[in-house]
Write a structure and sequence with these properties.
The protein has about 230 residues and is an alpha/beta fold. It folds into two domains: about 1-40, Monooxygenase; about 45-225, Alpha-Beta Horseshoe (Leucine-rich repeat, LRR (right-handed beta-alpha superhelix)). About 40% of the residues lie in helices and about 10% in strands. Helix 5 (about 100-110) packs parallel to helix 6 and helix 6 packs parallel to helix 7 (about 155-165).
Length: about 230
C-alpha cells in the first residue's frame, strides 16, 4: 500500500511526528502530500531555535496555531543576549542583522494567529514592550506568556498584562532585568489569578543605568590589577 492511499486523517497523523524540514521535504514528493502539508490543522504548535528558521517556508501560520516557542540557545546566537556595552564589533554586527527578526515575526503572528494560547520567548534580546502589547491585544485567548532573558522588556509589558491580559494565567519574566519590583507588585495586585514568576529580574542591574555598568567595569579592572 502506498502512503498516498491513506486517508487525510492518517496522513495528518503521520505528518505530526515529523519536524518542519521533514514535513517540507515529504510535501515536495507529490501534490496530495503538499495539500496535507498546507493543512492548518497540522500547525497548532511551532518551536524555533535560530533566527534563520523564522524566515523559512517550511511552516504555516494560521488560526490553528496555539503554542509558539522561540528560544535562542546556540552559542552563535548567545551574542544577542548580552548588553550592548559588552559587545565587540562582530557581535554588534550579528545583532543588527537580526534586530527586527523576532518582532516582525510576532507581528505576523498577531495578524494570523488570533487563537494563540501560549507564547514562550527565551533569549530574544530585541523583543520590545510594544510587540508584546500587540500580542496581548490581538491574541485575547493567551493563557501563558513566558519571557526569559528578554532584556528590552520593562514595566510597560507588565502594565500591558494588567490592561489586556484578561485570559492570562501564567506570566514568567525570568532574567528580564529591566522590570522593577514595583511593576511586579502591580501585576500581583491587579491580576491575583495570574501565576507570576520573576526569577532574577527586579534585583538585577538594569541595562538602563549606565552608571552602574561603569562601576562594574571599574571593579573588573581593579580585580585584573590585583
Amino acid at each position: 500500500m502506498h502512503i498516498t492511499q491513506l486517508n487525510r486523517e492518517c496522513l495528518l497523523h503521520l505528518f505530526s511526528f515529523l519536524d518542519k524540514n521533514s514535513r517540507k521535504n515529504l510535501a515536495k514528493t507529490c501534490h496530495k502530500l503538499l495539500e496535507v502539508f498546507q493543512d492548518p490543522l497540522l500547525w497548532s504548535l511551532l518551536n524555533f531555535h535560530s533566527p534563520v528558521e523564522l524566515k523559512k517556508d517550511n511552516f504555516l501560520l494560521g488560526p490553528a496555531l496555539k503554542y509558539l516557542s522561540i528560544c535562542w540557545y546556540s552559542e552563535r546566537v548567545k551574542v544577542c543576549n548580552i548588553e550592548d556595552w559588552m559587545k565587540n564589533s562582530f557581535q554588534k554586527d550579528f545583532c543588527n542583522r537580526h534586530e527586527n527578526t523576532v518582532n516582525d515575526f510576532l507581528l505576523d503572528v498577531c495578524n494570523r494567529c488570533p487563537n494563540l494560547l501560549s507564547l514562550t520567548l527565551s533569549g530574544c534580546g530585541h523583543v520590545t514592550d510594544d510587540c508584546i502589547l500587540q500580542v496581548l491585544k490581538n491574541c485575547p485567548n493567551l493563557k501563558s506568556l513566558k519571557l526569559e532573558n528578554c532584556v528590552r522588556i520593562t514595566d510597560q509589558t507588565l502594565e500591558a498584562v494588567t490592561l489586556h491580559g484578561g485570559s492570562l494565567r501564567t506570566l514568567h519574566v525570568d532574567f528580564c532585568r529591566n522590570v522593577t519590583q514595583a511593576g511586579l507588585e502591580r501585576v500581583k495586585q491587579k491580576c491575583p489569578s495570574v501565576m507570576l514568576r520573576a526569577e532574577r529580574s527586579a534585583n538585577m542591574i538594569p541595562d538602563s543605568k549606565p552608571e552602574k555598568k561603569l562601576m562594574l567595569e571599574k571593579a573588573s579592572r581593579k580585580l585584573v590589577q590585583l
